[in-house]
């Protein structure tokens, strides 16, 4: 089957230089972006119901930019002034860089992992007598949970935001050759918006094993998959399919 139109179930990249740009230029296809899920912040009242007292924590563990945004949003709504001496443990350089939106980087104690908190084990243990707060969505990556537990530190999770299904009703009469998914929630969104969805000739592309499992659970046919040894990115996987 030839591919002419692709729908990426994520927001459009802001840098204007996405890996799909090459596909558009080289293969003359149309690529659209539409997030199938989005993040909503919990209210201060909902956070208080979790009995979370920010003043008890000397350390904040940040896993994503959403965690950064919603920690400082809730702190402001709860009229909690984050102490200057608060220490921040960031999972990656991208998260640490984003933190500068809220704090003066050079004046704060910020520790950065290489996409894993395991890299910061010695620093975590240095402050093992203190308490650590992990702002998160409704769930936390099990790998992160296991890593923090292995440090035998005092840490707690606070749900400050949630991931919800987006309204896609305006796409009901729109057809794409390929639908691209990056999470099980994206698959869930498809069927919540279109309970009677029939795949027929539509190609389904999935990124990651959990997304693949969710698609198979909905009896979808997987036509394109990433990452693989020959196609570590979704853009490469789509191009390999186009080339046949």
Could you describe the 3D structure shown?
- The protein is of the alpha/beta class and 244 residues long.
- It folds into two domains: 5-36 and 167-243, Rossmann fold; 40-162, Rossmann fold, CATH 3.40.50.
- The protein has helices at 20-27, 44-48, 65-77, 93-99, 121-126, 142-150, 184-193, 209-217, 234-243, and strands at residues 5-8, 30-33, 37-41, 59-62, 87-90, 109-112, 131-136, 154-159, 161-165, 178-181, 203-207, 224-226.
- Helix 1 (20-27) links the parallel strand 1 and strand 2 (30-33).
Task: Please tell me the CATH architecture of the largest domain by its name.
Answer: 3-Layer(aba) Sandwich
Structural class: alpha/beta
Q: How far is the N terminus from the C terminus?
A: 9 Å
Helix content bin: 25-40%
Averaging pLDDT over every residue, what do you get? Answer: 94
The CATH class assignment of the largest domain is: Alpha Beta
Q: Count of DSSP E strands?
A: 12
